[in-house]
Structure formats: structure tokens, C-alpha cells
Design brief:
This protein is of the alpha/beta class and about 475 residues long. About 30% of the residues lie in helices and about 25% in strands. The model has no long low-confidence stretch (mean pLDDT about 90).
């Protein structure tokens, strides 16, 4: 017989732990469990262990609203983020509700019982376990944990050196005195390059196209000054508001005045590099925020390039050779180690199969509702953060919305809530289509869709979503309710 819970949460990363904390605070009395595939808390922050791994959002807005980030570090190394999530789980007691080592295979909804049955594989033993719940919340993010993206590189089998994907970084890698080529221009490559220069003989960042960078301070210097007059919680609460406003201003400015924002982004890079590097390596062909920006703490990437310890090359790969990479321009990059920071693969809902009364559901064909629930899926939510701001900003208010919905269902005697989209609501794009990043375009078929208007449209706007999720009526005419019999 399946163990029964009021709520099952899949994923013990930053979203799942946040969801559980909100559930305990705002919907007390609910019996819940967290099912986690890995053997530790942290999700993405437990998975990625490459050199220099850190947050690419400021920690004041990336931290939970209910547990402020109490450190002057604006961008924190991954170890501290992982510890922050773990300590939050312990402080709120949600760590006692986690079942580790479970790969979710299937979630099936029974209309007769108004119940989800979750089938999981205990990977250490091979045992299959079933759980039952009234409400199911997926907090699995959008990464494929089993594989990263690796393009087909001609001649890769000829290369006598070592190739590494950052998602599977070997703990014992010794790159002292080695020539390293990092393929990529996204956040991972931008983090790895300056982190490796201290020990490597030389590091080359090979990019096909440039990326926009935003230089941020490593430490927030205002904290020391404000600490003379204000209590710590007041300071960090204020900083959170300031950084949220800054994020929104940069995004809105990029969309409204792209040419001015381009100059604003490039000017400090030009100032740091001077005449040492051709600025074409830092001048994308697309507008700011058409793809996610990369944050560079204290300009460490540009310092590494200016020092001569790192080089940036914009070109395409013709073929790998025995000792490196031949570029289409004819230039050869010699390498002992090649890091393929070529991106992630998308996998929504952790790759589980979702069925309704045994019938398979193609979730990529369904519309998201308030970017939290899914069209035609009863009593199910997915916690999905922002791509144009700190992930946790959206995860926090989405979790609070789920608690509002659960409390409303209890107060009204409702057993089942299902979003029903009107005819003609299906629009262009998916829940991440505000960006044109390669990892989104590659796996677009993995992502839920969005509609033309109303709660079916993804806003990507924190100030709008706060009202939509926290203040607007739960019963807005789009949810179909089934009362308890």
C-alpha cells in the first residue's frame, strides 16, 4: 500500500526547500514529503562543482525572502549557496521530511480518487516505491542532470588530451601548468576561465559569438557604513529591495533603449581592457537581454585577459587535432585540457512520465497557468523561477501561491482544482521564450507553452507577478473545482 501525503514535493534544491518552508509556515498541518534523487540537499548547487562555481545573481535577491542573506558577498561561491540552502532546511525542520536517492519515474492522476500516485526508483537498491498524494509540486528546475549539451566536434576522437564537461567535473583534476581551452561564452565559461588562470599555464576562452557582461562588486561596501546606524536585518532587507529594483531597471532599460544599454554595458569593459583586446570579442550581434547576461565579479575575467594569463578567441572549430583545436580561420589552439562549457540540456519535471487516468500527457503542448499550474493537470504545480532576474524571486511567490490555493481548497471543501484554458488561447512561445539562448532553442519541445493573454501569459515581471499570485482572487473563472463528495 502506498504511503499517503497531503502534498508531495519533488526536488530538494533551492525551489523544493523553499516550497517546503512556505508550506510549513502558511499551510501548517499538511503532511508532506520531499522526494530527492541525489543524496544531499542543494539540487543544482550540489551538482555543479567546477572551479569558481558561484551564483550568477546577487545573493540579496537570490536568497529566500523569509531568510535574508546575511553576508556582504554579492555573488557567492557555490559551496556557500549550498550551505545556505541546507541550513535553511535544518532551521525550518524540513530536512526531516526528505527521502533521498529516489528517481521519479511516473506521476499518475486518478479522477475517481482525486489522487496522484508517484512511482519512484530507489537507485541504490533498484526497488520501486509508490507514494500517494492529494497535491503534487514539481521543483526539479529545468536541467537534465544526466547529460549536458555536447555538440558534435569533428576530430574529437583524435585529441590526445583530456576533455571535460563542467557538469561532470572530476574532483581530482590536476591542471597545474597545463594549457586549457574553455569552449563557450556563457556563465559557466566566464566563471571557469578566471578561476583556472592561477594554476594553469594559460587559459583560452573560445567562443563562437560574444556575450553581454555586467560587472558587479564581490562585496557590498555599503553594509559596513550602514552597520553603524541600522540593525543587520534592516540593512539586508533594504539591500534586497535595492537589488531587485536594479535588476528590473536594467531589464526594462535593455528592452526600451537597447542601443543605449549596449553602450552602458560595453563602456566599463573597454575601460578595464584598454587597447589590449579587440572589443569585437565583447560586442554581441543581438540586443541586451535577448539572452541572459553574464555577471563578472569585480571584472575578474577581464583582469585575467589583461594580465595575459587568459586569451579570448572568437572563431569556429574546424576540427580537433591530436594536440588541440584547428579553427576555421586557420589558427591552431594547442591544449592539454579542453573544457566543453557548451551548455545544458533541458528536461522539465525531471523527465518523469505524467499520465491522467493512465493516459500519457504531452506537457510541452499544455499552457502554463500563472506560470505555476498547468492546463488540464489537476492538483499539480511546478515551481519555475525567473530567467531575467533571480530564480528565487519567482520561486518564493509561486510557492506562496500554492499555499494560498491549498488553503482556499480546504476552506471551500474542494478536492480538485484544474486550470481550463479557453479556446484560441494558445499563443506563440513557451515559458522561457523571452530569451533566444541556444539551450532554449535546442530543447524547445521540452517546455510548457504560454497563451496570448491573462493568467496564461508569462509576464517575466516580479512586480506584476506579486499582485497576480499573492493578491488576485484564487477563483478567477479559469480554475475548475471539484468539491469533496
Amino acid at each position: 500500500m502506498s504511503e499517503h501525503f497531503d502534498v508531495l514535493i519533488v526536488g530538494a534544491g533551492i525551489s523544493g526547500i523553499g516550497m517546503a518552508c512556505h508550506l510549513q509556515k502558511e499551510s501548517p498541518g499538511k503532511r508532506y514529503a520531499i522526494l530527492e534523487r541525489r543524496s544531499a540537499i542543494g539540487g543544482t548547487w550540489d551538482l555543479f562543482r567546477y572551479p569558481g562555481v558561484r551564483s550568477d545573481s546577487d545573493m540579496f535577491s537570490f536568497a529566500y525572502a523569509f531568510r535574508p542573506w546575511m553576508s556582504p558577498k554579492v555573488l557567492s561561491e557555490g559551496r556557500l549557496v549550498r550551505e545556505y540552502v541546507k541550513e535553511t532546511a535544518e532551521e525550518y525542520g524540513v530536512d526531516r521530511h526528505i527521502r533521498f536517492g529516489l528517481k521519479i519515474l511516473k506521476a499518475d492522476w486518478s479522477s475517481n480518487q482525486n489522487l496522484w500516485t508517484i512511482t519512484a526508483l530507489q537507485e541504490s537498491t533498484g526497488e520501486t516505491i509508490s507514494y500517494a498524494c492529494n497535491f503534487f509540486v514539481s521543483c526539479t528546475g529545468y536541467y537534465d542532470y544526466d547529460q549536458g549539451h555536447l555538440p558534435v566536434f569533428p576530430g574529437l576522437d583524435r585529441f590526445k588530451g583530456q576533455t571535460i564537461h563542467p557538469q561532470f567535473w572530476p574532483e581530482d583534476l590536476d591542471y597545474r601548468g597545463k594549457r586549457v581551452v574553455v569552449i563557450g561564452s556563457g556563465a559557466t565559461a566566464v566563471t571557469i576561465v578566471p578561476a583556472m588562470v592561477a594554476q594553469a599555464a594559460h587559459v583560452t576562452m573560445l567562443q563562437r559569438t560574444p556575450t553581454y557582461y555586467f560587472i558587479a562588486p564581490t562585496l557590498e561596501k555599503a553594509i559596513a557604513m550602514l552597520g553603524r546606524f541600522l540593525p543587520a536585518r534592516c540593512i539586508y532587507g533594504t539591500l534586497r529591495s535595492v537589488y531587485i529594483a536594479l535588476q528590473r531597471a536594467l531589464y526594462k532599460g535593455a528592452k526600451r533603449w537597447p542601443d543605449a544599454m549596449r553602450k552602458f554595458m560595453l563602456r566599463p569593459i573597454q575601460k578595464m581592457l584598454g587597447d589590449t583586446v579587440d572589443m569585437r570579442h565583447f560586442t554581441p550581434s543581438y540586443n541586451p537581454w535577448d539572452q541572459r547576461m553574464c555577471v563578472v565579479p569585480d571584472g575578474d575575467l577581464f583582469k585575467a585577459i589583461k594580465s595575459g594569463k587568459a586569451t579570448i578567441v572568437t572563431d569556429e572549430i574546424a576540427t580537433f587535432t591530436e594536440h588541440g583545436i584547428l579553427l576555421k580561420s586557420g589558427e591552431t589552439l594547442e591544449a592539454d585540457i579542453v573544457v566543453t562549457a557548451t551548455g545544458i540540456r533541458l528536461k522539465t519535471f525531471g523527465g518523469m512520465d505524467i499520465t491522467l487516468d493512465g493516459a500519457p500527457v504531452a506537457t510541452h503542448q499544455l499552457l502554463s497557468y500563472r506560470a505555476v499550474l498547468m492546463q488540464d493537470l489537476p492538483n499539480m504545480a511546478f515551481i519555475f523561477g525567473y530567467t531575467n532576474a533571480s530564480w528565487t524571486l519567482k520561486a518564493d511567490i509561486a510557492s506562496r501561491y500554492v499555499c494560498r490555493l491549498l488553503n482556499y481548497m480546504d476552506s471551500e471543501g474542494i478536492a480538485c482544482a484544474t486550470p481550463r484554458a479557453p479556446e484560441g488561447q494558445l499563443g506563440e512561445g513557451n515559458v522561457m521564450s523571452s530569451l533566444t539562448s541556444g539551450y532554449i532553442l535546442r530543447d524547445v519541445s521540452e517546455l510548457p507553452r504560454q497563451g496570448r493573454s491573462g493568467p496564461w501569459r508569462v509576464t517575466h515581471a516580479y512586480e506584476v507577478d506579486k499582485t497576480l499570485l499573492l493578491n488576485e482572487s484564487i477563483d478567477d473563472g479559469a480554475l475548475e473545482f471539484v468539491r469533496r463528495g
